Amino acid sequence: MKFATKVIHAGIEPDPSTGAIMTPIFQTSTYVQAAPGEHKGYEYARTQNPTRHTLEKNLAALENGTDAICFGSGLAAQDAVIKLLKTGDEILSVNDLYGGSYRQMVRVYGAWGLKSRFIDMTQAHTVADAIGPDTRMLWIETPTNPMLNIVDIEAICAIARQRGILTVVDNTFASPYLQNPLDLGADIVLHSATKYLGGHSDVVHGCLVVRDAALAERLHFIQNASGAVPGPMDCFLILRGIKTLHLRVQRACENAEAIAHFLRKHPKVSRVYWPGFADHPNHDIARRQMRHFGAMVSFDLADNTFEAARRVLSRTHLFSLAESLGGVESLIGHPASMTHASIPREERLKVGLTDSLIRLSVGVEDVEDLIADLDAAL
Ligand SMILES: *Cc1c(COP(=O)(O)O)cnc(C)c1O
Questions:
Q1: pLDDT tens per residue, the chain (378 residues)?
Q2: CB 104 less than 6 A from any atom of ligand 1
Q3: How many CB atoms lie within 10 A of CB 26?
Q4: 79 CA distance to ligand 1 middle (Å)
Q5: Ligand 1 pocket, residue 171 CB under 6 Å
Q6: C-alpha Rg value of the chain to the nearest Å
Q7: 367 CA to centre of ligand 1 in angstroms
């Protein structure tokens, strides 16, 4: 099955009891047993729920995996992955990791004795050199936020595999439409389904996808034992969102491409970060591992001040000032004061995250309207 067919059909059957074409929202906590231990595969809804199960089958297909495991949020999915490790183990992650992921690793699991280090993964050899005796997991995010760096998934997974280290790819920014890390050698793919998979900014949800039966079993065990499961209504909303994933992401990427080129020529803009430019440092890797270059664009202003950024952010009408990404509507954000405010200014400046850096999550509106909105604001 090709991707556009999978989003609509993979793992999804009409409801056997009614013929309903849409997967019902099984809003139940328990299931009646005919006799003790005699049931239809469902006993208690933390362990199994038919709406969630349908979504898990669909997600596994989208990432070319065998199993998907769903959670109440992207960070709950990350929490389950970290529980594969034990005290004293180390995670090596990209140095511009999603802030919430960083906070959980350092401030929650740090107290339990988990070690974490954050390094530049844009050069695969740096990763090989950084691996230490306690490194048990590599945590990759690509494209990264908000600098849109690209990490070579295949090269890094090959290094990890040789040394028996698990690789996790947070594929939230790309979505399964653009990039399938399991095909490139990753062990676990993570999504904040809150973003492109849901796609309509109306639900918080997370998932993991794997293709190793033993790993799937351990993660299912943790899901059930720790209990951060999503509700059936949320699973239904993600299933519904996924049906148009390919259409939404394709259009958003095309809009982002036009906007990136527009911004690059604009006299008020000093620099545009978008992996589709031929002179982006890892453009060739992006071209190889992604189907398109994504719908996130960051740019810096010629007037390098917070005040200049604030003026632009307050003047757009179609781009709404908000955190998050991946919805049908375009969003604009200011990483230095919003998503990345907890990172010290000197650290931010080292990676190019200036006071005037602006991040766009480009939606699926008419691109001429979006460009006119940015032009007026600039
Ligand atoms: C939003 C996000 C997360 C966290 O997901 P939640 O659903 O908000 O818990 C993790 N990684 C990335 C890249 C994200 O954008």
A1: 999 999 999 999 999 999 999 999 999 999 999 999 999 999 999 999 999 999 999 999 999 999 999 999 999 999 999 999 999 999 999 988 888 999 999 999 999 999 999 999 999 999 999 999 999 999 999 999 999 999 999 999 999 999 999 999 999 999 999 999 999 999 999 999 999 999 999 999 999 999 999 999 999 999 999 999 999 999 999 999 999 999 999 999 999 999 999 999 999 999 999 999 999 999 999 999 999 999 999 999 999 999 999 999 999 999 999 999 999 999 999 999 988 887 778 878 888 899 999 999 999 999 999 999 999 999
A2: no
A3: 20
A4: 12
A5: no
A6: 21
A7: 26
Alpha carbon of 190 to ligand 1 centroid (Å): 9
Domains contained in the chain, CATH given: 3-242 (3.40.640.10), 245-377 (3.90.1150.10)
Residue 243 CB burial class (10 angstroms; 0-12, 13-18, ≥19): middle
Q: Which atom of ligand 1 is nearest to the CA of 77?
A: 9
In whole angstroms, give the CA distance from residue 149 to residue 275.
Answer: 7
Burial-class residue 307 by CB neighbours within 10 Å (0-12, 13-18, 19+).
exposed
* Cβ(256)–Cβ(286) below 8 Å: no
Q: Are 216 and 210 in contact (CB under 8 A)?
A: yes
The runs of H, that is alpha helices, within 163-244 are 213-226, 232-242
How many H-runs (helices) and E-runs (strands) does the chain carry? 13, 12
Give catalytic residue positions: 46, 98, 170, 195
pTM for the model stands at 0.97
Please tell me if the CB atom of residue 173 comes closer than 6 angstroms to any atom of ligand 1. yes
